């Protein structure tokens, strides 16, 4: 844990490093040993075209002043894209873009001081008894008999799980339920606030999502009769048969259930005191979840889905490099598509590796506990 004194020492060295890189001369008052250490330090950094100190590895912006560090942590944690996500996701997002000593500790301090995180941890609804049953089903699925090593999908948007959360407190817009959906490969989530959990609402939600993202096989553990009703509605709307199926698919059901829990927990931090404006916050939390690094895949759902990072509000405020201009020549577009395909392939391979590593770790942990 970096103390204030250590942080100030580090900031001083970084200020000196910037001077040395910019002017080619040492700041005044340094002894021989300090100059030698500064020469070593400067190998890790460079000054970009806007005069900012950045790391050579990863091109991360070096934030030297403590006040600015605190502001950035607060913006990422609370801001439009942050939506009060937890410590790990906030640290990962910061560490991918910024550099200073003690980022993790600053995030912990920020979250501990964050009134919304400290005070609003109550769920926005009282837990229904069915949640206990659902938890038991999920716990069963977690047992070592489950096929931990298999990944049933090999690409994005092949298979998604769907869940219905609620009843929640009725909002001013008349919404009472949340329909959630999660892509099994990328972990890309979708969600919508709806007034009821009717087959019509679910069919409308699925149509809206599929018209935007493409058609996909949907799995749910909802009642079979309900599933038939949704299919009938979808068939009437777009002629697609059996796009949603009832299946006890432990991975899909567990994944979407976990996302539902995360969404509900995060909503509980940002709702007003009457807890009736939760539907106003769904989109910003979705954006935060989509653009944060996922614990298992070690990649953000956004990057897996689109093959590029999303631009966040913090990037617009801090990035010294402007987004590159889009190619205008037809050949450039072809090259661009080719590059994107390669990049997506590379990302998908990385995801498979990371998921496999996470599964091996989980299996080892379980085997150890069984011994
Ligand atoms: Zn917070």
Describe the structure.
The protein has 371 residues and is of the alpha/beta class. It is 54% helix and 10% strand. The protein has 14 helices and nine strands. The protein has helices at 4-23, 32-42, 66-78, 87-97, 103-113, 115-119, 129-142, 199-213, 224-238, 250-270, 282-291, 301-306, 313-318, 330-370; strands at residues 45-47, 53-55, 61-62, 98-99, 159-165, 177-183, 189-194, 217-220, 244-246. The protein has a five-stranded mixed β-sheet, sandwiched between helices. A two-stranded antiparallel sheet has the order 1-2. α9 links the parallel β8 and β9. α8 (199-213) crosses α9. The model is unreliable at 127-149 (pLDDT under 50). Zinc ion binds at residues 77-78, 84, 111, 114, 116-117. Residues 148-309 form the Integrase catalytic domain. Residues 346-371 are annotated as: Disordered. This is Integrase catalytic domain-containing protein. GO terms for molecular function: nucleic acid binding. It comes from Holothuria leucospilota (Black long sea cucumber).
* DSSP strand tally: 9
Small molecules in complex: zinc ion
Task: Please count the helical segments.
Answer: 14
- Widest β-sheet, arrangement of strands: 7-6-5-8-9
Radius of gyration: 24 Å
CA distance, first residue to last residue? 35 Å
Mean pLDDT: 84
Shape call: elongated
- Estimate what percentage of residues fall within beta strands: 5-15%
Percent in helix = 40-55%
| Largest sheet data | 5 strands, mixed
Low-confidence stretches: 127-149
How are helices and strands ordered from N to C? HHEEEHHEHHHEEEHEHEHHHHH
SS-based class: alpha/beta
Biased composition (Basic residues): 360-371
GO molecular function: nucleic acid binding
InterPro entries: Integrase_cat-core, Integrase_H2C2, Retrovirus_Pol_polyprotein, RNaseH-like_sf, RNaseH_sf
Region (Disordered): 346-371
């Amino acid at each position: 844990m970096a103390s204030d004194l250590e942080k100030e020492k580090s900031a001083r060295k970084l200020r000196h490093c910037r001077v040395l890189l910019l002017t080619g001369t040492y700041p005044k008052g340094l002894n021989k040993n300090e100059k030698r250490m500064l020469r070593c330090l400067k190998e890790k950094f460079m000054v970009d075209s806007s005069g900012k100190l950045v790391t050579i590895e990863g091109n991360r912006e070096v934030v030297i002043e403590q006040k600015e560090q605190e502001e950035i942590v607060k913006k990422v944690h609370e801001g439009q894209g942050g939506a009060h996500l937890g410590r790990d996701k906030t640290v990962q997002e910061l560490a991918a873009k910024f550099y200073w000593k003690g980022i993790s500790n600053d995030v912990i301090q920020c979250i501990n001081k964050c009134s919304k995180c400290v005070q609003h941890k109550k769920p926005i609804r009282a837990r229904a008894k069915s949640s206990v049953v659902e938890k038991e089903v999920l716990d069963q699925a977690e047992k070592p008999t489950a096929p931990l090593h298999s990944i049933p999908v090999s690409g994005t948007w092949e298979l998604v799980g769907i869940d219905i959360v609620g009843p929640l407190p009725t909002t001013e817009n008349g919404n009472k339920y949340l329909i959630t959906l999660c892509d099994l490969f990328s972990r890309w989530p979708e969600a919508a606030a709806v007034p009821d959990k009717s087959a019509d609402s679910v069919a409308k939600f699925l149509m809206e999502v599929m018209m935007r993202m493409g058609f996909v096989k949907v799995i749910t553990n909802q009642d079979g009769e309900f599933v038939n009703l949704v299919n009938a509605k979808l068939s009437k709307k777009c002629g697609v048969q059996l796009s949603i199926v009832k299946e006890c698919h432990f991975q899909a059901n567990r994944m979407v259930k976990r996302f539902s829990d995360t969404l509900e927990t995060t909503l509980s931090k940002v709702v007003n005191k009457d807890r009736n404006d939760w539907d106003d916050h769904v989109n910003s939390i979705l954006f935060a979840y989509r653009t944060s690094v996922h614990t298992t895949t070690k990649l953000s759902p956004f990057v897996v889905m689109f093959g590029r990072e999303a631009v966040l509000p913090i990037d617009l405020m801090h990035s010294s490099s402007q987004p590159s201009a889009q190619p205008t020549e037809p050949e450039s577009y072809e090259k661009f598509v080719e590059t994107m395909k390669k990049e997506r392939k590379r990302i998908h391979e990385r995801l498979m590796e990371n998921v496999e590593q996470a599964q091996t770790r989980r299996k080892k942990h379980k085997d150890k506990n069984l011994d």
